[in-house]
Structure formats: C-alpha cells, structure tokens
Amino acid sequence: MSIRILALLTAAAMLTGCASTASPVLGGGNISYGDTKAIELVTNEFGSTDLQSIAESMARSLAQSGVLQARPVIQVYDVKNKTSEYIDTREITTSIKTQLMKSGTARFASDNTDMQSQVDQLKLQNQSGLYKDATVSQMGNMVAAKYRLEGSISSIVKRSSDYKDVFYKFSLQLVDVETGLAEWMDEKEIRKTTER
Amino acid sequence: MTRLSCSAVALLGLLLSGCETFRSYETELTAVNQHIQAGDVDAALVLLEKNNSGDDKDLLYYLEKGELLRTKGDLDASQAAWAVADRTVTQWEDTIKADPEKYLAEFGSLLVNDKVRRYEGYDYEKVMLTTQMALNHLARGHFEQARTDIKKTHEREAFISELRDREYLKREEEAEAKGITAQYTDLQGYPVQTLEAPEVLSLKNSYQSAFSHYLAGFIYEALGEKGLAAPGYRKAIELHPNEPLLEQALVQLDAPAPGSGQSDVLIVLQAGLAPARDSVRIPLPIPTTTGLIITPLSFPVIKSELGSGLQGGVLLDGEALPLVQLNNTDAMSRRALRDDMPGIILRTSVRAISRSVLQKQLNDNVSPLAGLAVGVFSAVTEGADERTWRTLPDQTLVARLRLPHGEHLITLPNGQQAQVKVDQAFQVVALRMIGSQAFAASPAVQITPSTPTSLAQAL
Predict the structure, then answer these.
(1) Domain coordinates of chain A in residue numbers?
(2) Shortest CB distance from B228 goes to which of A30, A86, A113?
(3) B231: chain A residues, CB-CB within 8 Å
(4) Which chain B residue has its CA at the smallest distance from A91's CA?
(5) How far is B402 from B425, CA to CA, in rounded Å?
(6) Range from B190-204, B245-259, B396-410 that averages highest in pLDDT
(7) Domain A44-130+141-195 belongs to what topology?
C-alpha cells in the first residue's frame, strides 16, 4: 500500500513539475496562437500559404539546381507584381533569400532598399571623423554580384455567379551579370477556387 | 396586461428608443456647413459639439469632427478623432468576422427603424475615412504612417467586397421568402433618375474609390515598393478606365525617380460637401392576412449639395493646370442607396407588416383606440434615415507633375492663392475648397486672399 502511495505521490510531483515549466498565460478570451504553417483558406486572395509555398519551392529548386557554386553573390531585384492584388512581393523574395542564406548556398549583395543605408553608413564611417581609423570599413571594398535574381507574379481571375477562380503564376530567374545568360529559371503555379 | 398590450408597449418603446427618432441630422449639419462656407470652422466645431453633448458619441460625430479639424488645419486633433472612428469601424469588422452568419441573419428581421439603429457608416465612408487619414499624414510628408492607413483602406475594401457579395445573395433569398417583390423602380413618385444617372451606373460599386487606389500607388511608389504601387494604379485604371493620368502612372513606374532638386508632386484638390439624405413618403402595397393594403412608407433620397463643387479652373505658376476627377462622393452615395434600396424596401415592408398585424389585433382584441395609437405613432416616427457623413469632400481632383524644388503658386477658381513649398522627392499638396472658401492643412501650403489680379487670372 505504502509503495502505491509513494508511486502516486511521485507521479503527482512529476505532473506538478511539468505544469510549473509552462509559461503562465495572461488574459485569454478569443485570442490564441496558431500554427504558422497551417493552410490558410480564409479567402481566395493571395495569402500566407501561397507565400510560403512559393518561397519554399523556389529556394529548394535554386539550391538544388547546381548553379550556385562556391556561395556566389546574388543581387535580388523586386518581383514585378502584374496582378491587381496588393501582394507584398518583397516578402516573397525575403523568404527566398532567408532560406538560401540558411542553407549556405548563396550570399546576397545589398539590394535597392538596403543600398542607401549601406552607402550612408560607409560615408558616415569615412567622412564624419567620428570613428577610430582601424575600425573604419574602407570604401571601395563592397562585393559586386555575380548573379541577379528577378521575377514576376501574374494572375488570371475568372468569376461566375457561383465560382471565383484565381490562377497565380510566379516566375523567377537567375541571370549571370557578366554574360547576361539566364542560368536558372523556375515557375510555381497556384489555383484557388471559391464556391459561393 | 395582455400579451398584445405588452407587444404594443414594446413596439412603442422600440419606436421611441433613443432621441435619434426625432433628431433631424440634416438640419443640424446644414447649420454646421453654413459656418464652414462662411469660413468659420471654429463655429462649425462648436455647433457640432453642442449637437452631440451626450457622453455616448457615435461614429458619425467622430467622422464629422475629424474632417472639420482637418479643414481647420489641426492635424493632430483630426487624426485623434478619426482614430476613434477607425476603431469603431474595426470593431464592426471584428464582430462580423467573428460571426458573419449572425450579421447576415439579422439583416431582414429588424423591427426598428433604420434611423434608430446605431450608425454603422456607409461603405464608401469607411473607405474614405482611412484615405483622409492618409492625407493627414501626407500633409506633413509622413509617407510611412500614410502607408499604414492606405493599407488598411484596401484591406477594408476587400473585406467589404466579400461581405456585400454574401449579403446581396442572402437578401434576395429573404425577399423571396417573405413575398416582397417591390423594387425601387416600382415606387411611384420616387426620383428614380437620381439612382439611374450614368455617373452612378458607371461605378463598379459604391465603395471602391479610384482616388484611394491611385493614392495607394503613389505612396507605395514614393516608398520604393513598386510591387505594391502597380496594383494600386491598376485598380484605379479598372475603376476609372481610359484616363491617361492613371495609365501614365503605371507606364512611368519603372522610370527613374526624380533627380536631385526635383519633386514628383501630386496635387489633390477636394471640393464641395457630400450630399444629404432626405425622406420621401411613397405608398407601397403590403401583403397582410387580409390581402394587399396600400400603406405610405418613408424612403431615403439623395439631395446633392448645390453650388459647393468646383467651378472653374486652377493655375500653377500662372499656367492652366488640368485636373482629373477621381472621386465623386455624390455618385458613390447614390450608388450606395441604389444598392441598399432592395434591403431598405425589405426592412421597411417587414416593419409595416408587423405594425399592421399588431394594429389589427389591438383593434379586434383590446380596443380600437389602442390600435389607432399604434397607427398614429407609426405615422409620426416612421421616417427614412437622414444620417450620412456630410462634411466629407464631394469631388476629389488630382494633377501630377515634376516640379523643381522651391516656391510655387497655385491660383484657385475663386482667386485665392496657395503658396506651396516643394522640397521633397515625392510630395502631396492637398487643398480643400468649400463654396468660396479655400483651406489647406499642410504646413508647406499657405493660403492667401484673392486679389483683383489673381481673380482675373483665375477667371
């Protein structure tokens, strides 16, 4: 009997221990955290699942293509949005960059949005007289890109009284800056249909 | 007390609930607008406060207050008032997102008059709210903050679009189930032509604004986000086809940004006041247990604000500046009414049927006097909803051009001049004209009175 009680007490202590490791929850109501990879079907407009699937598909395809030898430097250009939908295409390219960077297959030069900050910082270090010479990043050492990555997204929307069908096509290509040759290209197609 | 008497008391309570039943919004706002037309925005604000002295202020109060404060040039206070309005609209959205079926189910079953319901705002007002908020930020050159509001504008528009698609389908089903077949074209004596005008029919719907999307394109372009600017311009073209100004924006999107000492300037001239809503009584056949009876019912009509629009041209540094109209609140308001009319007819008819049933039962089972009381009360309290955002600009016109940095002079049709300081790579110059008065909210713009020379030039 005493062994049983001891076992129960041990189990209770273990369970209490488990509970105490969880973070306390403040508030509650209707707020909850969801799975960021959950398939989003709230509306048939471009959504988080589309962004993730395009980025994953393109990053995998490019990383496995064999083009990216010795971690080349790539300049990423904005993806042209040819749809009538407010799609933040920069988020797609940021996700592709992140995945390629994490896989260690490529490095990225400052793109259009970062370039001004990069130039400002270099000027500040070299022209303001505020920094120790030994720590100042020298002008003229920025690494130029071997490739540029550019693409577009387009859509075809068809409506009837019962259906709305949206077809997205995302294209991306890697072009050798020196030769102008497209070294890699891929497409991702997505079809979303809503029945009213 | 019998169940019938209770029903009668409850109905009277519903009819009386809130002083909204007896409030004439149009009378209040006509007086407010007279102060603005006289150039005295402070007096307009005092009157608005006086008319809304209670603690429980509604969406409409904050919409009007924000616009008056913007006209006065008090951008911080305007933004604060509109932030409250925006939270109210967001709550409305959240309630529907939480349970859309409940919202749609309530649609045709409302026993209370539309004007007693808490003001929800028309869809075009919800879209224009955040567009005007973006203009407040742009008056100070704050493009990043304007981006937040303009993003909210097109997200809200997408939500409204989805909701209305479902609502119109549901309404058709309900009208069919209740046997109400009347359409606004059947209303004898109703000014049908106001809802059938070409400028109303050419709109895709009541809430999508070519100006809001064009402004979105301009803001995203200024921030270097061409992937988001393109759909802004594209949507504006879809809503306002064959307009070179809009097509040019899309073509020029890949052109180099303005060089040093140059500015890409968007001149926005907002003129006039949004139209009013009035009430007309139209006899309509109502199905009852004893057959169809003809009952006079109240329906809203749009009353355009005459003479407050833009009359004449604008000069920039002495040269004629062609402006393109991208927004017409009068047409949007009429389109909103046109799209709402089936629902208004349905709700008004359902209320009339309920009243006639109650009146008959009171007559038969309680006393003819009780039945008469319900009839008299209905006649007194039944009126169309006159509430609408009246200080919202009627017309929005734009011009876009590259200008060298420095001082520039815009001469308005009334001869008043706006001294504009251009010093940003992208800049929005927003001006407001109401009657013969001109206003500017931006610190970069100074309005000066007209002179005989400037008036002669403008004419």
Answers:
(1) 44-130+141-195
(2) A86
(3) 81, 83-87
(4) B227
(5) 10
(6) B396-410
(7) Rossmann fold (3.40.50)
Nearest to B114 by CA among B338, B356, B352, B344: B344
Interface pTM (ipTM) of the complex?
0.77
| Residue B165 to residue A30, Cβ atoms within 8 A | no
Whether A196 and chain B come into contact, CB under 8 Å, resolves to yes
From CA B129, how far away is CA B392, in angstroms rounded?
9
A88 contact B CB<8A = yes
Say what the pLDDT of residue B55 is.
87
What's B296's domain CATH number?
1.25.40.10
| Tokens at A77, concatenated | 């250009």
pTM, entire model: 0.85
CA separation for the pair B343, A60 (Å, rounded):
52
pLDDT digits (tens, 9 = 90+) for A153-186: 999 988 887 788 899 999 999 999 999 999 999 9
Number of domains, chain B: 1
Alpha helices in B240-284 (DSSP H): 244-251
Residue A76: which of A122, A145, A142 has the closest Cα?
Answer: A145
Give yes or no for a contact between A121 and A48, defined as CB atoms under 8 angstroms apart. Answer: no
Q: Do B227 and A113 touch (CB under 8 A)?
A: no
Which residue has 């050492």 as its token pair? A141
Contact list, B230 vs chain A (CB under 8 Å): 80-82
In chain B, what is the greatest distance between 2 CA atoms, to the nearest angstrom?
86
